[in-house]
Amino acid sequence: MVTSRRKFIKISALGLGGLATTSAALNMFESNPILDKAVKETVAKRLSRSATYCEVCFWKCAAWIYKDEHNDIKKIIGNEQDSHCNGRLCPRGTGGIGMYSDEDRLKTPLIRTTINGEETYREASWDEALNLIASKFKDIKANYGSEAFALLKHGSPGSHLEHLFKAYGSDTIAEPAYAQCRGPRETGFGLTFGSWIGSPEPTDIRDTKCLVLIGSHLGENMHNSQVQEMSDAIDNDATLITVDPRYSTAASKSKHWLPIKPATDIALLLSWMHVLIEEDLYNKNYVEKYATGFEELKKHVKPYTPEWAYGITTIKPEDIRKTARIMAAAAPSVIIHPGRHVVWYGDDSQRSRAVAILNGLLGSWGNRGGFYFKEKISIPKYPHPHYPEPKWGWHDLGTQYPYAEMGLTTAIVDATLQADKSKYPIKAWMVAGTNLINTLPQREKTIEAINKLDFLVVVDTMPMEITGYADVVLPECTYLERYDGIRSAPNRTPSIAVRIPAVKPKYNSKPAWWISKQIAERLGLGAYFNYDDFEEVIAWQLNKLGTSLEEMKKIGVKNFPRQSGPLYLEVEQDYEFNTPSGKIELYSKELANYGFDPIPVYVPHPEPPQGFYRLNYGRSPMHTFSRTINNPYLNNLKSENTLWVNPKVARILNLKKDQEVWLKNQDDIISTFSIKVRITERIRWDSVYMYHGFGHNNKKLSRAFGKGMSDTDLISSTVIDPLMGGTGLRGNFVSILKENPHKTKEI
Length: 747
Ligand SMILES: Nc1nc2c(c(=O)[nH]1)N[C@H]1C(S)=C(S)[C@@H](COP(=O)(O)OP(=O)(O)OC[C@H]3O[C@@H](n4cnc5c(=O)[nH]c(N)nc54)[C@H](O)[C@@H]3O)O[C@H]1N2
Ligand SMILES: Nc1nc2c(c(=O)[nH]1)N[C@H]1C(S)=C(S)[C@@H](COP(=O)(O)OP(=O)(O)OC[C@H]3O[C@@H](n4cnc5c(=O)[nH]c(N)nc54)[C@H](O)[C@@H]3O)O[C@H]1N2
Ligand code: SF4
Ligand SMILES: [Mo]
Fold this sequence. Notes:
Oligomer: single chain
GO molecular function, one term: oxidoreductase activity
Largest sheet: 7 strands, mixed
Keywords: 4Fe-4S, Iron, Iron-sulfur, Metal-binding, Molybdenum, Oxidoreductase, Signal
Pfam family, one: Molybdopterin
InterPro entries: Asp_de-COase-like_dom_sf (IPR009010), MoPterin_dinucl-bd_dom (IPR006657), Mopterin_OxRdtase (IPR006656), Mopterin_OxRdtase_4Fe-4S_dom (IPR006963), Prok_Mopterin_Oxidored (IPR050612)
Bound molecules: ligand MGD, iron/sulfur cluster, molybdenum atom
Family: Belongs to the prokaryotic molybdopterin-containing oxidoreductase family.
Radius of gyration: 25 Å
Shape: globular
Distance between the termini: 61 Å
Number of domains: 3
CATH superfamily of the largest domain: Dimethylsulfoxide Reductase, domain 2
Number of helices: 26
């Protein structure tokens, strides 16, 4: 129901920080007041539209870009036929227009140069920049082998450049969406159900009776259709249980909020399993038919009573029992959400596995209101010669983590640091669509690795921090000005969506497909890019899929019927899971063979020392990471983050609302900028909280520079997941400084 969904967004936004941002945010979920005004002013004029999918985050909602007869983009709205957005974009998607209009954009290629002894950038032609890059590709190959050139990427530009790198002979490739984001949950669920979760998550939220969110703050984490479904589920009286040390938006909509002591989730999960098994509430038929290892699990969780968990988690035993019973009553229409950003404390694959096992006990996998069987269209490969076989690549880095199934960004950093003594010497990076300086933990290490490189080229749309370290900066045009690969994502019904340029690239910017092709041609690899325009590739693929570019330009999204069978298990259906045993593995022999715990175990983590608070962070509903902070429309909605501090702490430290403070962490690292205090009961007294993405330190970002604080400044300590190499980021502690430490230093 549209009305109540609107209401939900309104209420949730209200909780977020005052009316000023709220009313605009509310309006923006469906329409943007600033853009609406522009549209009204041109009401007499006809607007034409072209299809795209959003690049402001990775939910990839399909949308229409409206422009007037002067080719001015006026508005972006969701495509009604798209299951990722159901015709409505989130505030960030609506504000995506600001990515295009931002006057701070990168405008032309830049080459590092020294003038009067000072390093600076000079503007260059594409030809000069591309020739220089091609010569470096050749040098690296001749001196160290192609494998020594690494690609660090995120988002759409990545796939074009990945093709270039593979043609060149390197699959030394990684993205932060694995080791700094989803990796552990894919391992945890993969080990249990034999299937990755993937994106979008196959959570059947719209039909669920009980949704359990553990450190997953849907509503601030604005993944579009997921938030819409949660709102529908609330309308349908589903029970929400939120486990979060912070009173999140989701917590404010929940029947049960469990303000867990940070870093203790595995204890709660084990105790929930204990209650389900001891009280005979688990889904017996399902477990008997589909699971293996039940007896071992039963024995394992026997000691983990709610009373035991209370001492660890601070969640009252009666609340643990009550919520376990609610889950069991809803089963199998219950979801213990797998989360998305799950790199917390280093034992994250095991925590994710505990979440998976709990879902297994309740029978939610393959059942309505639990997890559905997803399906996607496979896009035909445009023909090209075989890739050469690299001698080594991402597989060989981080081999100590047996479940690392994608490249680890941090292993690339390490291999770069050890290039002189390693058989895998990394000597050059291309970075595209990721602001590594704010994205990777242990910034000093990232910068040290960059300093060791022979060559760094950055492809970006904005003068983000990472561009300041490049030898060559290439300006990519925004998603509104280019073709990209066809979107095909797993969902209830498979669909495809296209991205068609609405306008010509502004300034002297170019799309990543063109950049890749230009470099390839200079390297004699033109055969891999056998087309003049990427449009030809898409047209060819669409024909193979039984549609055409003409049709897709008109409809933007095409939904296909399911081919793989029903969304859910049939009653008593035989089903083989893609695990070694063919069953849901409550106990994993494979893990035992590797010397890991076959069933998750709770291990205590370090606590904040005296005078320190745990640094907690999360998503701002108005922004995506660091990429949108300078966006004129979104910056207008939220220009800086605040530090959430419990009133008790404020009293002890005598902090006032809006007072500016600096933070110093356990390694004596001090934040670059200050942050304003927000005193609120919504955060526990043992932690402080801030939105990630703020505190930019590149002056070229005129709106974002120096506004708020960067959580990454203070994440100098990580605990690595021994299974898959993810970097646990939540083990950092900060003390609050009331005097400007930078000023003091200068005196
Ligand atoms: N401290 C801390 N670190 C984190 C997180 C956190 O919460 N806190 N979150 C983690 C998670 S979950 C993730 S997924 C990662 C995200 O990591 P990133 O994807 O690196 O995040 P962004 O800061 O958005 O950086 C995106 C970069 O891509 C550029 N860009 C945007 N659009 C385009 C485009 O169309 N073309 C090109 N070429 N460039 C473009 C932007 O200008 C920006 O420089 O960060 C992880 N790291
Ligand atoms: N608006 C917006 N939405 C986004 C994004 C964005 O940049 N902006 N990014 C997208 C991406 S790539 C990702 S990965 C997701 C990330 O979104 P989520 O997976 O939802 O995760 P986080 O932002 O890491 O979650 C932060 C929540 O975890 C809680 N938390 C902290 N420590 C603990 C703990 O020890 N135990 C428990 N139970 N909870 C804890 C925090 O208080 C906070 O509420 O968001 C996606 N959606
Ligand atoms: S959720 Fe929002 S930002 Fe992400 S793709 Fe959809 S509209 Fe864009
Ligand atoms: Mo992420």
